[in-house]
Amino acid sequence: MAQTQTPYRVKGVFLESCNCEAGCNCNFGGFPDHGGCEAIIGISVDEGTFGDTDLAGVKVVLAAKWPKAIHEGEGSAAVFIDDSASEDQVNGIATILTGQAGGMPWEILATTLTSLDGPNMTKINMQVDGRNSGFSIDGKVDVKMTPLINPVTGEENEVHIVFPNGGLIWNDGNTCTTSVMKINHGDLNFDYTGQSAFFAPVEWTNQ
């Protein structure tokens, strides 16, 4: 008999940075620009529930690497949750992000991982400000997003990638790059400053 999954809804912002060139070919051809995928994600929950638990205000950092394309698997990841979260909030968001509660995109992404470290409870500094957003964990993670610049005019270049029928993780990604993008945590140790980044509103549910 199938286990009854706790209903959830999450609405917030997704701050994505990876080792691809700006725009990230994964959105077009399904494969990374440079063989493998190494990424650091920040998630800020504006509103949401996991069963009876309110998830508003929860902050998460997810770092991961895959040797080839994400859908080819063999990935390893680490999850960090801001230490202001309650035990029920930690249980809720961790259950969602590890795919155990079902719903897209997490039930798919979870199947691509062979190892998962966490959840690690820590202080997460997060600034949500469109293409100037950023997040950090002292001594471990630092990501600062910055707008793309038109090389001719020197002005900010606003480019969106939109999935009219819905994307896997987000539907409308505001393209940017990074002035800082690095992590030093166990096997996750990389620095891809100046590569792809996105600011994207997200809404996920298993209902």
Description:
The protein has 207 residues and is mainly beta. The protein has one domain (11-205). Helices cover 7% and strands 49% of the residues. The chain has helices at 87-97, 106-109, and strands at 8-18, 37-50, 53-54, 59-66, 75-82, 113-122, 125-127, 134-137, 141-149, 156-157, 160-162, 172-185, 188-191, 197-205. Strands 1, 2, 3, 4, 5, 6, 7, 8, 9, 10, 11, 12, 13 and 14 form a 14-stranded mixed β-sheet that branches. The protein is globular. The two termini are 19 Å apart.
* Major sheet: 14 strands, mixed
Number of helices: 2
Question: Percent of residues in beta strands?
Answer: over 45%
Question: What is the structural class?
Answer: mainly beta
* Terminal residue distance: 19 Å
Portion in helices: under 10%
The overall strand count is 14
- The SSE order reads EEEEEHHEEEEEEEEE
Shape: globular
The average pLDDT value, as a whole number, equals: 96
Radius of gyration over all CA atoms, rounded: 16 Å
| Low-confidence blocks of residues | none
Number of domains in the coordinates?
1
Chart the SSEs and their pairings.
Layout: E1 8-18, E2 37-50, E3 53-54, E4 59-66, E5 75-82, H1 87-97, H2 106-109, E6 113-122, E7 125-127, E8 134-137, E9 141-149, E10 156-157, E11 160-162, E12 172-185, E13 188-191, E14 197-205
Parallel strand pairs: 5-6
Antiparallel strand pairs: 1-2, 1-14, 2-3, 2-4, 4-5, 7-8, 8-9, 9-10, 9-12, 11-12, 12-13, 12-14
Annotation keywords:
207 residues, mainly beta, 14-stranded mixed β-sheet
